[in-house]
UniProtKB/TrEMBL annotation:
This is valine--tRNA ligase. It comes from uncultured marine thaumarchaeote AD1000_88_A06. GO terms for molecular function: aminoacyl-tRNA deacylase activity; ATP binding; valine-tRNA ligase activity. The lineage of its organism: Archaea, Nitrososphaerota, environmental samples. One of its GO terms (cellular component) is cytosol. Its EC number is 6.1.1.9.
């Protein structure tokens, strides 16, 4: 990267750069966490969370993308007292976690059934038919099964209807004992198997092949599962209005990409889960008392590795016990990169320098990380300084190949700029980018051009 910049003739101080995984940088990430902990912005909670079982960790809503994937919409027969109700679902493997069936209160087909019980096929539990406006009259038969957890609507419904959750999928991404005969299978395998069983037992009315908007992990590209996990959260719901105000003060180039931030702010429903079960990352600086579990945080300023360093406190502040166990989880990587404006302005290190340089002038970045890098930086810097981190944001589009496909290393269609600069010279390259690229929009690249 630095070599490309040098070859393009950029004038920078190339010896003065930062790495978010350096000791100094990680010490800042940890110091900001300790500060937010002290002012009560961090809390621990067990909640249904987006879980990427391939990488084995919780992920934030901002790390989810939606893909249209082909799937089967299975219309199943649920027995009522003297008949049956048809319920369509793309996740029949979650039947064991079904705790209610909902129908729209205005759906006259079901008025008489509200408050009565139906029997869930295969797993055989009895659940109540309840009226709820989120059931869409025109989707499937209009009756919907509520399972822990098929999607985010299920999470909201379990809370609202006060249902007791069943953990049907474990942290290994496989069905749990709760799934009976399907325990140990991956959701897709269990789906195939349970469809066969439903069919042989006469519980299927019909199966439709549909394309379904499915939440997948941006990192592993596999459908996420929603399972209850205990994680640390950074409060963000209460800051949405403030972020909207700051976001509107920042000058976006081009102006249209400000809307990506505003749309994201409109969609924030939960606080930010910041702990991850990954080995590589900045450690969460906490030690717990072995006797009473009281958390102990060190003084900010140093880089701490609690999984192998001794707790700086000699005894527990609550019970006096002298043994501790270090936290093993790490931070979401955006916890690091969201304080870069504070690192470069020597926040908490050189008061004089910080005063002169913060807020900084401009954030240059790509449009796909507005809801992560840009938003989280805005949130964290405001939390810690009360001010916005920069006054301008330069948002770039993607480089596309000749066919208009987004360039990526994994697709093998990325162009390395270095040989091109060497062949044609930096001036030619700069002239091409100035004339070809409409700032903020996607642009096609090829050696020919
Ligand atoms: Zn203790």
């Amino acid at each position: 990267m630095i070599l490309i910049m040098k070859n393009l003739g950029l004038s920078c101080d190339f010896d003065n750069y930062y790495r978010t995984d350096s000791k100094e940088y990680r010490a800042l990430t940890q110091a900001t966490f300790i500060e937010l902990w002290k002012n009560d912005s961090i809390y621990l909670a067990t909640r249904p969370n987006n879980y990427d079982w391939v990488t084995g960790t919780t992920i934030a809503d901002a790390e989810i993308i939606y893909e249209e994937l082909p799937t089967k919409l299975v219309h199943m027969k649920f027995k009522t007292k003297d008949g049956e109700v048809i319920i369509a679902s793309t996740r029949p493997e979650l039947l064991c976690a079904c705790k209610a069936v909902i129908v729209n209160p205005e759906d006259v087909r079901y008025t008489d059934l509200i408050g009565t019980k139906v029997t869930v096929p295969i797993s055989n539990q009895e659940v109540e038919i309840q009226a709820h406006h989120s059931a869409q009259i025109e989707f499937g038969s209009g009756a919907v099964m509520v399972c822990s957890y098929g999607d985010h609507n299920d999470v909201a419904l379990f809370r609202e209807l006060d249902l007791e959750e069943v953990v049907a999928i474990g942290q290994d991404g496989r069905l749990t004992e709760a799934a009976g005969a399907y325990a140990g299978l991956k959701p897709k395998q269990a789906r195939t198997k349970i469809i066969e069983d439903l069919e042989s037992k006469g519980f299927i009315e019909k199966i439709e092949e549909i394309s379904h908007r499915t939440p997948v992990s941006e990192r592993s590209r596999t459908p996420i599962e929603i399972i209850p996990m205990e994680e640390y959260y950074l409060k963000q719901k209460g800051s949405v209005e403030k972020m909207r105000e700051l976001g509107s003060q920042i000058k976006f180039y081009p102006k249209m990409h400000q809307q990506i931030l505003m749309n994201w702010l409109d969609s924030i429903k939960i606080d930010w889960p910041i702990s991850r079960r990954r080995f590589y990352g900045t450690e969460i600086p906490i030690w717990y008392c072995k006797k009473c579990s009281e958390p102990h945080l060190p003084e900010p300023g140093e880089y701490y590795q609690p999984w192998y360093l001794e707790c700086p406190a000699e005894k527990c502040s609550k019970c006096g016990f002298t043994e501790f166990v270090g936290e093993e989880r790490t931070f979401d990587t955006w916890m690091d990169s969201s304080v870069s404006p504070l690192f470069i302005t020597k926040f908490k290190k050189d008061e004089e320098f910080f005063k002169r340089t913060y807020p900084t002038a401009v954030r240059p970045q790509a449009k796909d990380i507005v809801r992560t890098w840009l938003y989280y930086t805005l949130l964290r810097c405001e939390n810690l300084t009360g001010e916005k981190p920069w006054s301008e944001a330069w948002i770039m589009g993607y480089g596309l190949d000749e066919k208009g496909m987004k360039m990526s290393k994994s697709k093998g269609n990325a162009l390395d700029p270095l040989p091109i600069i060497e062949k044609f010279g930096a001036d030619t390259f700069r002239f091409w980018s100035a004339s070809e690229v409409n700032h903020g929009n996607d642009f096609r690249c090829s050696e020919q051009k």
